[in-house]
Each structure stands twice: as structure tokens, then as C-alpha cells.
């Protein structure tokens, strides 16, 4: 095990503000290996950046170069390997036991982008002065942000606006047009949808949660209301900035012909129109989950299956695709609407 202050000795943590070390420590996975175990293997990509804290590891690159890495050496303060290099080396434990820690390479890259934005912030910036920065890690770990190039992540941070909120305050209202999405920097919120009896709570949100984005993707009215459960602080992102930085990189489109090939290979078609529209025209074997019901019905979908969302117009299937992408699904939005897919089937 290592303590937060020990990170000053490791690269690239020595380039990151010390105040963020406790947050980083929470993201570490500590592990132990035995002699002969592999940390990395040639042609096998890993997702984590690994560090050696005890023992000896033998590294052989795909070019045939060899290196012995000992925990007592200065080189052990650098990564054994990361996601970008993991498939170009064999890294084998040669000591009786080996101890180390690892962190998601993607998250580490993005934390360095955040650190750069934070250190460049000028007095009065909404990025400064927070009691806790757990929201930053929560945001960086969200599926939608993980899909972004680093330049977009930096721009996202630079475009945030701080908005203090009170318990009971309604931040977004179901049925209204969307102009902003929000990240919870402090506090908790609850999500409600209208039902015959009044309203129903469908989700709770905590620090780092992104909400209000669905209406920005679909250009349709808000499909739920969000009220603060406690006093808090929100970081607001304007809709036009959201579309520029997030929407274009998260939603993947597929044409009808390619969609048919994907369906033949096991993809799942999800029709996100209303039931009355689905009853009028549909494709056999697809799921009907209205766009505003997607979050409540994800248990019906297989996380291991590729999903294709479809509707009459691109806005609703784009909104559903964005939601599913942020929940970890391999998802595409169908171009041309359901009628285009039907015409392709008929031809």
C-alpha cells in the first residue's frame, strides 16, 4: 500500500496538484502477483497503467529488447506500462511475489487534462474554490466524457458555469425546452416523471452526475424533472457548447443497409417511438421502449449486445443512443428513420 503523499515520487502524479492525490488514491486498485504471472502480454491490450511497489518484473518488447525492473530502482517510479504500450510487451513477474497498483489509463490521461485546466484557471474561475473535487472524477468517469478527445475535455471544463442551488429547487422541469445540461459539483438531486397519480421518482443523482442532456440531444422537451434534494452547487454547460463538445463524439450513426447487416449478426433493434406509432408501423423482433422510458427499461436490454435505436426522426433515436452510450452500451442511431429501414428491407 502507498499513501497519498507517496504519489509525489511517481510519474505523472508528480505533475498533478497535491490536493487531488486523495481522489486519485480512491481510483487505485492494489494487487499482488506470483512468480510467472504476466502483467502485460504482446498483442493483448490492457486498459490500466500499472506500477511496481515490491518485487521484480522482466520486460521483453515486441522488438526483442529486454529490461529488468526492480521495485528498489528509480525506474519503478514510472509506469511498468499503460494502455498505449500494453500490447507491445511481455511483462512477467520473476520474483517470488510482486505487489503494485494500477489505475485506468483513460482516467489518468483525463485527470491530467483536468489538472492543466485547473492550474490555468484565473481568479474568479468556477473551477476554483470547491470544498471537494470528487465531482471532477465522477464526470471524467462518465461514459460520455470518456468518449471525448482530450482537447474537448479541456474545453468542456473551461466552458462550465457555477450555479448555487437550494434544497427543493427545480433545476429542470418536465415538458420544458432544454437550454443547459448540468453536473452536480456538490449536493444531491432527485429525478421525477409525471404519472397518472402525480409524479414518480425514477433516479437519484450525486456529485459528478451529468443530467439534462437528453433534451439537448433530441431538441425535444425535457422528459423528466430534476429537483435538488439538498443545497448544492451545479456546473452548467450551455446547449450549444454541449452539442459541439459532447453530442458529436458520443452518438454514432448507421445507415439502413449497414444496420441490417448488424441485425443479422446479432444486434438488437430498439424502436424508441410511442406505442401508438409503433403499432402503426414496426419491424418484427424489435423492442419498443419510448425514448422517455429508456432509463427505466434498460433491464430489458443485453449489455453485451450491440444496440441500434430507431424512430421516425433522428432526434429521438439520437437521444436514446446518447443515454444508452452513457450507460455503457455499444449503441448506434439509425439514419433515415424506421421507414428508411422498412424500404431497405423491402428492396
Write a short abstract of this structure.
The protein is an alpha+beta fold.
How much helix, percentage-wise, in residues?
25-40%
Percent strand equals 25-35%
Domains, number: 3
CATH homolog superfamily of the largest domain = Jelly Rolls
Low-pLDDT parts are: none
Placed side by side, the strands forming the largest sheet appear as: 16-20-19-17-18
**Given the structure, what is the number of helices?**
11
Our measurement of the CA-to-CA distance between the termini, rounded to an integer number of angstroms, reads 63 Å
Tell me the overall shape. globular
Query: According to CATH, what is the topology of the largest domain?
Result: Jelly Rolls
CATH architecture of the largest domain: Sandwich
Structural class estimated from helices and strands:
alpha+beta
From the alpha-carbon coordinates, what is the Rg to the nearest angstrom? 23 Å
The count of β-strands is 20
Mean pLDDT: 91
CATH classification, class level of the largest domain: Mainly Beta
Largest sheet: 5 strands, parallel
Amino acid at each position: 500500500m502507498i499513501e497519498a503523499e507517496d504519489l509525489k515520487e511517481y510519474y505523472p502524479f508528480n505533475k498533478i496538484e497535491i490536493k487531488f492525490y486523495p481522489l486519485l488514491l480512491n481510483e487505485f486498485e492494489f494487487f499482488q502477483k506470483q512468480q510467472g504471472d504476466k502483467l502485460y502480454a504482446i498483442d493483448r491490450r490492457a486498459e490500466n497503467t500499472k506500477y511496481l511497489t515490491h518485487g521484480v518484473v522482466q520486460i521483453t518488447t515486441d522488438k526483442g529488447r529486454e529490461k529488468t525492473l526492480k521495485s528498489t530502482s528509480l525506474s519503478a517510479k514510472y509506469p511498468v506500462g499503460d494502455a498505449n504500450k500494453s500490447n507491445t510487451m511481455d511483462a512477467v513477474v520473476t520474483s517470488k511475489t510482486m505487489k503494485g497498483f494500477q489505475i485506468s489509463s483513460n482516467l489518468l490521461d483525463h485527470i491530467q487534462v483536468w489538472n492543466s485546466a485547473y492550474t490555468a484557471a484565473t481568479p474568479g474561475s468556477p473551477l476554483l474554490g470547491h470544498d471537494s473535487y470528487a465531482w471532477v472524477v465522477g464526470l471524467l468517469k462518465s461514459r460520455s466524457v470518456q468518449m471525448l478527445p482530450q482537447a474537448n475535455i479541456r474545453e468542456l471544463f473551461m466552458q462550465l458555469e457555477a450555479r448555487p442551488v437550494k434544497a427543493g429547487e427545480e433545476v429542470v422541469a418536465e415538458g420544458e425546452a432544454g437550454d443547459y445540461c448540468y453536473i452536480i459539483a456538490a449536493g444531491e438531486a432527485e429525478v421525477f416523471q409525471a404519472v397518472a397519480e402525480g409524479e414518480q421518482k425514477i433516479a437519484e443523482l450525486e456529485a459528478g452526475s451529468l443530467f439534462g442532456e437528453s433534451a439537448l440531444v433530441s431538441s425535444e422537451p425535457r422528459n423528466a424533472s430534476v429537483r435538488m434534494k439538498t443545497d448544492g452547487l451545479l456546473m452548467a454547460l450551455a446547449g450549444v457548447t454541449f452539442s459541439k463538445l459532447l453530442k458529436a463524439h458520443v452518438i454514432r450513426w448507421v445507415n439502413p443497409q449497414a444496420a441490417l447487416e448488424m441485425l443479422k449478426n446479432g444486434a438488437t433493434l430498439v424502436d424508441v417511438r410511442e406505442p401508438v406509432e409503433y403499432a402503426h408501423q414496426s419491424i418484427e423482433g424489435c423492442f419498443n421502449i419510448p425514448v422517455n422510458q429508456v432509463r427505466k427499461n434498460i433491464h430489458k436490454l443485453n449489455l453485451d449486445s450491440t444496440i441500434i435505436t430507431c424512430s421516425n426522426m433522428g432526434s429521438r433515436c439520437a437521444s436514446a443512443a446518447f443515454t444508452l452510450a452513457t450507460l455503457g452500451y455499444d449503441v448506434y442511431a439509425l439514419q433515415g428513420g424506421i421507414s428508411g429501414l422498412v424500404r431497405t428491407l423491402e428492396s
